[in-house]
Amino acid sequence: MTTDNVLISVKDLKKKFDGMENHALNGVSIDIHHGEVVFVVGPSGSGKSTFLRCLNLLEEPTGGTILFEGVDITDPKTDINIHRRKMGMVFQQFNLFPHMNIMKNLTIAPMKLLGKSKDEAEKTAMELLERVGLANRADAYPNQLSGGQKQRIAIVRALCMKPDVMLFDEPTSALDPEMVGEVLNVMRELAEENMTMVVVTHEMAFAKEVASRVIFMDNGSIVEENSPEEFFSNPKSERLKSFLSKVI
Amino acid sequence: MTEWFSEFADRFYRNFIKEDRWQYITDGLLVTIQITVFAVILGVVIGFLVAIIRSTHDKTGKLKIANVICRLYLTVIRGTPVVVQLLIIYYGIFASVTIDKMIVAVIAFGINSGAYVAEIVRSGIMSIDKGQFEAGRSLGFNYAQTMIYIIIPQAFKNVLPALGNELIVLLKETSVSGYIAMEDLTKGGDIIRSRTYDAMMPLLAVAAIYLTVVIILEFLVGKLERRLRNSDH
Ligand SMILES: Nc1ncnc2c1ncn2[C@@H]1O[C@H](COP(=O)(O)OP(=O)(O)OP(=O)(O)O)[C@@H](O)[C@H]1O
Ligand SMILES: [Mg+2]
Questions:
Q1: Per the CB < 8 Å rule, is A82 touching B141?
Q2: Which domains, ranges and CATH numbers included, belong to chain B?
Q3: Closest-lying ligand to the alpha carbon of A21?
Q4: A89 CB within 8 Å of a chain B CB
């Protein structure tokens, strides 16, 4: 891959939380290319969420730089709100807006931030809802939906902004097992359409199947990265070997 | 029995019917309601402003000076009796200007109520899951937009019953308006007493009217609470 294909370029990213002794991120560097599906795995507390949340500055890095589409978003002069529109994020706990129905959840950001008309925004939302099989729930409120439905709506909410990258933080961890599949299916389709994705997950089989690259994090650093085939069948570091032996 | 009844009827006549004295009560009730309604509106406006400043400070560390002013306001208002505040505003601040006493009362009770509303609303804002905030920011909403579209509407719904209770408290607190010679409900009863030298009957009537209004308001607040609890959204 050529460098001009790079969508996000992270250099020596560091994060230390107030009152914590150790860095949650210890100098992470990685280039994420257009269309790449990067999976991030690692033990609990290794800094996966912190890394992901730094990418759209939900967590403010304490060191290093992040170039997104060539712009240094860690520069205080950069208006991060503009760039966040291009970075969809999906949370473990869905975080749908409970006081709005589904259609409103999906259209409020495109209307208020992108200046879309109501008709335009609803048309886009409806098309995406149809794709995830939830067009009939447009008038429902979030607490009338199952976990799997909520998460599919949360993905659609992010997609309605037409983002250039989607960030997922353990999107299936809060779901009952029988609902995991429906969410993974939506993510798989996105990957097949060449959406750039960064996915933190414990679903190793899914990572193996969908990832273009898998990253192993431990103690705030990237310890190993590889293609999914190599990553799972031929781990190099002892730490990854012992991690894989525990989770698979 | 008939003797008791005829005495009661006589007292009733003197206190309420003679010289249309019942009008002190009805006019007073109107004044009380006016003060309460306008003061609660002012209180909600002040309260939301203060709550937003305070929670913005808590969340982001910004607005340091405004936050200090707000905290000073909360401490002073909640640490002193409302009647003292009323007198200070009337005889102190507005002493040299001619101003409608109704406006003075609304300002005084509004400022007072705002302090209590502020803490109610702040707790409502702080009780919203931080994931809501993050979801808003991650879509590209700035801080203010996230507050306006996502946080405040949810917080407002959560604190509506508490705001209803604040309205009830305020209604009763306005009974000290007589201190600045406002003829509110309490003062109305007092005027009748000074005419008829009968303390019990007019004051009992006043108490019964407060109680009735409070019971009605409590009923409405309870209904609202149930509706909010049962509603899906
Ligand atoms: N808001 C915070 N304040 C203080 N410390 C934090 C905060 N968030 C995370 N940490 C710490 O930073 C480190 C990395 O946490 P992080 O949530 O990124 O791990 P993770 O890899 O996502 O773990 P998990 O698999 O459990 O989600 C941990 O030691 C954690 O305790
Ligand atoms: Mg995590």
A1: no
A2: 32-182 (1.10.3720.10)
A3: 1
A4: yes
